Amino acid sequence: MADPTTPPAPAADGLTIRRSRTARLRAGRLRAAVRRHSAAARPAVLAARLTPRSVRARTTLAACTTVGAALLVASAALLGLLHANLEHTVESGTREQARAVARLAADEQLTPLLPLDHGTDFIQVVDARGRVVATSQNVAGRPALAPVGAPDGRTTFDLRPLGEEHRQRVATVTATTPNGPVTVHVGSSLRTVDAAQDVAAAALLALCPLLLLTVGVLTWRTTGRALAPVEAIRAGVAAVGDRQLDLRVPVPAADDEIARLAGTMNAMLARLEAAGARQRRFIADASHELRSPLAVLRTQLEVALAHPDPAVRTALLEGALEDTDRLQALATDLLLLARLDSAGPDRPDDSVDLADLVDSTVRARAGDPHPVRLDLAEGITVAGSPLWLGRLLTNLLDNAQRHAGRGVTVRLYRDPGAGRAVLDVANDGPAVAPEDGERIFERFTRLDDARSRDHGGAGLGLPIARDIARHHGGGLALVPAADGTVFRTHLPIAAS
Asked: What is the 8-class DSSP label of residue 493?
């Protein structure tokens, strides 16, 4: 009987052993799978290591491989044609001699010993009963030679009794004589054919590697010379840094694809340099525009904090609020410019009625100092963003109101020749000098008569308007006018 005080062995030990065995089996299977995968991947890794990586090496390898394959095919074809042509020549001569002997037999002019032509192994003339009627000197006194089968299906004879160990071709011709039919056998040696083929094979075996080596060397040197400008371009681009955008890559003298590539790279570097310069100028101008109102705002707040007179403090706080509004407007413009700069090529596709947009925008500006005269053509619809197009019109109206003498005119019409909508915003104020026609569209640019913050803006309204027009597939430009200033916006009309 078991001792009741002794606890039973836990059943979990067997379960732990089984789990341990299962884990070992799984680990073994995993290691085996890894070894199989490594063995299967080893040839691919080796092939990747042996594959040349440079364009020069790959081009040379491709040229050598192509030329080598072409040489192999051409050599085989040449040897085959040479062999066939020489054998045909031997066979033609052999058959012609057999026919000549047959004519002699038919004319009863056959002699017991027949002379051999050059390259002929033997001649035998056998009658119907198998007796030798005439023969060449080298087989005189021998019985009729027995024909044996050749691998190529041609008739040949065993010449080993004559001490000959080479191939031959045999022509057999039957002739009718007064004594009965006879069979003429003429065998010609193929020693010259085999010798010529061996010489040709040896010459090709010596010349093909030399030609292949020449092709490899020429391809290596030519490819290196052709890729030298590319390497120079790569080194030039690698030398361009954040502070060295003025560097340019060398342009080869030849007018080829590489020269055009170098010109394109230089044009791209020029655009990057111009973009970097615009970005640095934009940051500097933005810092300047933000620093001035911030300094004024700080001064007003400090004075208001220290001044004991409530009336003065109120006036200072009102000025600070105005400067805060100016800062808010500037920050909004900067944010809109950033959004326009980062906007992709996709254009807004909302349908916008320009006449309704212009009419509603002008009606919402009831407090403008100068009246606005409208001349709007109906039914002109463009694809775009109503918010951004409204901002474009608002910026143009702000600029026109700022410089107008008596009034502002807004005209909307269709350009039938170009299929575009044209929006003119004109004012009767001072005209802009021709040399400033493009400069006013640069960011933070204010002309001399608009430098005052009481009358001029931050210099972002017109650049924002032009960017919006371009983002919608159109443009904005200053056009000559008899009196005053006209800003003309053109936008593509939406397809109906």
From this structure: B
**Each residue of 378-400: pLDDT tens digit?**
989 999 888 889 989 999 998 89
| Architecture of the domain whose range is 347-492 | 2-Layer Sandwich (3.30)
Query: Distance between CA 229 and CA 193 in Å, rounded?
Result: 54
Asked whether 486 and 479 are in contact (CB, 8 A), the reply is: yes
- Average pLDDT of the chain is 80
Every domain of the chain with CATH number 3.30.565.10 lies at 347-492
Handedness of CA 208, 211, 217, 221 (dihedral sign): negative
List the single range of 47-56, 76-85, 173-182, 310-319 with lowest mean pLDDT: 47-56
Q: Give the model confidence (pLDDT) of 475-495 as tens digits.
A: 999 988 878 889 999 999 887
Domain with CATH 1.10.287.130 in the chain: 240-342
**Residue 173's beta-bridge partner residues?**
184
pTM for the model stands at 0.50
| Contact in structure between 248 and 232 (CB atoms under 8 Å) | no
Architecture of domain 240-342: Orthogonal Bundle (1.10)
**Ramachandran angles phi, psi of 248, nearest 5°:** -135, 155
Residues in CB range of 246: below 8 A, 6 or more apart: 273
User: CA 138 to CA 309: how far, in whole Å?
Assistant: 149
| pLDDT range class, residue 452, cuts 50, 70, 90 | very low
Neighbours of 469 (CB within 10 A): 23
Closest CA to 98 of 192, 187, 194: 187
Between the CA of residue 15 and those of 10, 18, 24, 300, what are the distances in Å?
Answer: 10, 5, 14, 83
